[in-house]
Every structure is written in C-alpha cells, then in structure tokens.
C-alpha cells in the first residue's frame, strides 16, 4: 500500500525525496500518515481538497479489494 501511495504522490510534488509514509496498525484499522514538504502540501491537497479526495478514493478502493481492515489516509506536512 505504501508503494501505491508513493507512486501517486511523488510525481505531484517538487520534493519527492521528502515524501514519507508512517503506518499505525490496530486490530481493525490501518492508518497511513503521509508527510510531504511544507511547500508541496497545496499540491497534494489541491483546490477544495480534490486531489486529496482522489488519492484517498484510489487508496480506499485498493484497500477494500485487498484487505479486511478499514484503511485511513492522513496527509500532513
């Protein structure tokens, strides 16, 4: 899942080396915490959150097809 998120996000940003993903896993959910450079946060979120929503849609669809746990994606700088 981390590879999928990186594959989507790295082409969008100016500083792809700053893209980091931390994972917190509980018994019924997985939280992926995406961190990007502060200069790139606007590109990842997009106008009115459209890019972030699109990223979450792809990640959630992939998770639904492959995992039994609920998946969340948090985006921060």
From TrEMBL:
Matching InterPro entries: KH_dom-like_a/b (IPR015946), KH_sf_prok-type (IPR009019), KhpA (IPR020627)
GO function terms (MF aspect): RNA binding
Record bears the keyword Manganese: no
Stretches assigned to coiled coil: none
Keyword annotations from UniProtKB, A to Z: Cell shape, Cell wall biogenesis/degradation, Chaperone, Cytoplasm, RNA-binding
A UniProt-annotated Pfam family: KH_KhpA-B
One of the GO biological process terms: peptidoglycan biosynthetic process
CDD domains: KH-II_YlqC-like
GO CC, alphabetical: cytoplasm
Location in or out of the cell: Cytoplasm
Family to which the UniProt record says this protein belongs: Belongs to the KhpA RNA-binding protein family.
Function: A probable RNA chaperone. Forms a complex with KhpB which binds to cellular RNA and controls its expression. Plays a role in peptidoglycan (PG) homeostasis and cell length regulation.
Subunit structure: Forms a complex with KhpB.
Protein name according to UniProt: RNA-binding protein KhpA
Protein species of origin: Caldibacillus thermoamylovorans
């Amino acid at each position: 899942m981390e590879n999928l998120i990186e594959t989507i996000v790295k082409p969008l940003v100016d500083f792809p080396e700053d893209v980091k993903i931390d994972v917190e896993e509980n018994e019924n959910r997985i939280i992926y915490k995406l961190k990007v450079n502060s200069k790139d946060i606007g590109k990842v979120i997009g106008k009115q959150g459209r890019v972030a929503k699109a990223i979450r849609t792809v990640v959630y669809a992939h998770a639904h097809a492959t995992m039994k746990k609920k998946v969340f994606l948090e985006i921060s700088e």
